[in-house]
Amino acid sequence: MAKNLLIGLFHEATPTADTLAQLRELGIPDDCVTVMSGIPYRPEWLGRPPVRGRVPMFALIGAGLGLVTAFVLTWGLWLLYPLNQGGQGITPVPPTLIILFEVTMLGTMWAAFVGLLLENRFPIFKSQLYDPRITEGHIGVLAEVDAELADKAEAILKANGAHHLQRVEEKYPLFARPGNLLDRLKARVTTLFGPDLLQRPFWLVVAVGIVVLLAVGAFIPYGIFPVAIPTQMEHQVSIGFQQGPRLAAPAAAVPVQGPVLIAGQPASTPYPATADSLQRGKVLYDLTCVVCHGASGDGNGRLSGFFVPKPADLTSARTQAFSDSQIFLVITQGFGAMPSLAENLDVQNRWDVINYVRSLKK
């Protein structure tokens, strides 16, 4: 059914409210009548029902989705792909709280933005009618009415003192016309360009060209039609996965993943506790261990107060009762709150530290 758009301007709110009431009595629903004004009139002042927006609901849903996403990014991925960090997780609480807050707020803002667009029915494809005098203080009433009611609606606007009245036939876009998609396409093209447009050979050429471009573009990622894409690594000499030539590793090389730990055995032959080893062990101990275990090894380092339980007393009989292999495993893999030091100390360095720890007996 054909529609007409009517817009009229009013000076005051009272005749505007009367017009809205009479249009409602005529059978025009409130959602087909729009009031435009530079002054924020409340709907109740114009006799209209209060507007209840759904933007808060969208924002709440977005906050929930953001919070779930944040939990997936922080804890979920670690649960799916756990990493050995000396018995410690990789989700410390303070940074994780920041991530939870930020992602939750991001979801809230995006959902509120999308909800605002949907609430205002953007994008609007239908014909729009506007009068710039509305920005000068006038109140505009825009009504979308059926063609058979257009004359009566126009009479109501005029009777209530509407000025600068405009009336146009509404133009529907492609996807608003009744019928199937092909009929809507033909109707829209015919309306815009004339009834003989689809008979022109030019458009046949355009259609074939579009199909060819889409086909070529679809095969580019598969290398059927190679396209040179310049990058900063274009001229770099590199070797792909499982491609040669590769240099053979030395016979005594340690595997890339580090020493292989066998239950009950050290990963390598213990290094003798020479004077040089003890000296190196003290230097390495002061660099990596003293902040927690203290200079004398009694577990009273500067950071010891931040751990519960406190760092081990390396001078105690309990700790000294550990075998060298057990201490080596603790340094390599970590234990409790102590992280792995495998990246900080190579195999010989660990034995130097062990030799120095043995010298700290009470």
Structural write-up:
- The chain has 362 residues and is of the alpha+beta class.
- The protein folds into 4 domains: 3-52 and 126-176, Alpha-Beta Plaits, CATH 3.30.70.120; 55-119, no CATH class; 181-220; 275-358, Cytochrome Bc1 Complex, Chain D, domain 2.
- It has helices at 13-25, 55-80, 93-119, 147-159, 181-193, 201-219, 275-288, 290-293, 317-320, 324-333, 347-358; strands spanning 3-10, 33-37, 139-146, 163-169.
- The protein has a 4-stranded antiparallel beta sheet.
Tag the structure with descriptive keywords.
single chain, 362 residues, alpha+beta, Alpha-Beta Plaits, 4 domains, 4-stranded antiparallel sheet, 43% helix, 8% strand, elongated
The strand line-up of the biggest sheet is 2-3-1-4
Proportion of residues in extended strands: 5-15%
Evaluate the radius of gyration.
Answer: 39 Å
Q: What would you say the CATH architecture of the largest domain is?
A: 2-Layer Sandwich
Q: Sheet bearing the most strands, described?
A: 4 strands, antiparallel
Taken in chain order, the helices and strands follow as EHEHHEHEHHHHHHH
CATH topology of the largest domain: Alpha-Beta Plaits
Q: Would you identify the regions where 5 or more consecutive residues have pLDDT less than 50?
A: 173-178
The CATH class designation of the largest domain is Alpha Beta
Number of domains: 4
- The total strand number stands at 4
Taken from the alpha-carbon principal axes, the silhouette is: elongated
Structural class: alpha+beta
| Average pLDDT number | 79
Distance between the termini: 99 Å
Instruction: Give the helix proportion (percent range).
Output: 40-55%
The number of helices is: 11
